[in-house]
Amino acid sequence: QRIFSDYHTQMGDVLELGCGSGYMTRALVNDFPFAAVHAVDISPVFLEMARKKIGEEQQHKATFYVCDANFLPFADNAFDVVIGRNI
User: Fold this and answer.
1) 17, exposed or middle or buried, with CB in 10 Å at 0-12, 13-18, 19+?
2) Positive or negative, the Cα torsion across 77, 74, 23, 56?
3) CA torsion through residues 33, 34, 35, 37, sign
């Protein structure tokens, strides 16, 4: 959370690139006051793991997309924060 406060990050919508099995996704959804988390990964298997890791009570805060991070289906400037860890 320190990095978000150090950079005065706006806690609106966040895009997580390469979410993998969802460890960071779970933290973004459960530990930070983001309005919505949008997680992308090229692997549908990883996305399903990430979805399960969040838990049903927080599912409304996360959306998952199967896509290549080089070809994102989002408009420019659609997110307040973009995160990519271990990609």
Assistant:
1) middle
2) positive
3) negative
Please give the span between the terminal C-alpha atoms of the chain, in angstroms, as a whole number: 20
Distance CA 54, CA 24 (A): 10
Q: Model pTM?
A: 0.87
User: pLDDT tens digits, residue range 33-80?
Assistant: 888 999 999 999 999 999 999 988 888 899 999 999 999 999 999 998
Q: 10 Å Cβ neighbour count for 55?
A: 11
Q: Is the dihedral of CA 31, 29, 37, 84 positive or negative?
A: positive
3-state secondary structure 19-42: CCCCHHHHHHHHCCCCCEEEEEEC
The answer to whether 4 and 28 are in contact (CB under 8 A) is no
